[in-house]
Design a protein that fits this description.
Strand content: 15-25%
Number of helices: 11
Length: 319
């Protein structure tokens, strides 16, 4: 949401720092300990400072305002302004599937090549044109892994396992092909569902597993590394275009610094988080990654449209 306090420039001196011209609200699915939320807090601080108080950012963690998919719609209708999102946009844009496509990328080098190459640029352009979201750089997520209360080493160990997945079509396809029972569910509902046995497993990066407290309700962390992915901090394009040119420049410069800040704390956090999860009693299980890849590959490929199958091959050729 943006709020105009000064309608006539001559009556308003921004340097007096009395009232903000714009109040932005950001909704996060993660809690206040996650690197994304901390990065947005940093963003809010430098944005307020560099704009002389003309822009104020309010951050809401743990889906306090809305669940992730609702948050996107609320940005589109200008109820809120910012969030962090990625593959969920596959519900609007087909090419966004590659933001978190199972067994596609091997490491962060592959990921950066995709983001900075033609496929990544097309993603950003389609996000802007089809969903009205402007990207402000990217946050690395770290590989996704499966947690459970029984060790999972091969696809056969998954038979019948109820796995919570985000509402992303390729995730449903992948886990279904592997023999599990994928169950889309909002992130804020996962801990209670694991606790009550509504779902038996879930998959997320190390940082999400730690931040959500899943070690309390899951014994095994199966190192599947099935997705190497990233996510985008975004603002609604309508909201961004309401800024005057000087504030647009300040906003985008602060966003660049936010990405650098998040990357640094992500790197620091990644190893520490693994040690913390082990200390909380989680057993790390090495899995047969190639077996998972082989069993799901055909179903994933066939789930794509002919055009996206060409993009898939293009990505593999440029790895």
């Amino acid at each position: 949401m943006y709020t105009f306090i000064c309608a006539i420039t001559i009556q308003c001196n921004p340097k007096q720092n009395q009232e903000p011209e714009f109040i932005l609200r950001a909704s996060h699915l993660v809690n206040d300990q996650h690197t994304w939320f901390k990065a947005f807090d940093y963003f809010g601080e430098i944005l307020k400072e560099r704009s002389n108080g003309r822009i104020v950012l309010q951050n809401y963690h743990s889906e306090q305002i809305a669940k992730e998919i609702e948050g996107i719609r609320m940005i589109q209708t200008e109820v809120i302004d910012m969030t962090v999102t990625g593959s969920l946009l596959n519900n609007w844009i087909e090419i966004m599937a590659f933001c978190e496509f199972p067994f596609l990328l091997r490491d962060s080098v592959d990921m950066k090549n995709l983001i900075n190459g033609p496929v990544g640029k097309r993603m950003e352009q389609e996000m802007l044109e089809k969903t009205g979201l402007r990207t402000l750089g990217y946050f690395q997520r770290g590989p996704r892994h499966l947690t459970s209360n029984r060790p999972i080493k091969t696809p056969e160990d998954l038979n019948g396992l109820i796995v919570r997945v985000p509402n992303v079509p390729t995730f449903v396809t992948a886990w279904g092909a592997l023999g599990a029972k994928p169950t889309p569910m909002a992130f804020s509902e996962v801990f209670t569902s694991l606790q009550q046995g509504t779902v038996e497993a879930q998959e997320n990066p190390f940082a999400m597993i730690k931040a959500a407290g899943f070690a309390e309700v899951q014994k095994y962390l199966n190192v599947t590394s099935h997705v190497v992915s990233w996510t985008y901090p975004v603002i609604g394009e309508k909201q961004f275009q309401k800024f005057p040119d000087d504030l647009k420049k300040i906003f985008l410069e602060c966003a660049k610094d936010m990405q650098i800040y998040e990357h640094n704390i992500f790197i620091e956090n990644e190893k520490k988080v693994q040690d913390e999860l082990k200390a909380k009693g989680m057993t790390f299980v090495e899995v047969d990654k190639e077996a998972f890849n082989k069993k799901s590959k055909e179903a994933l490929y066939n789930s794509l449209s002919p055009e996206m199958q060409k993009v898939y091959k293009q990505i593999l050729a440029n790895r």
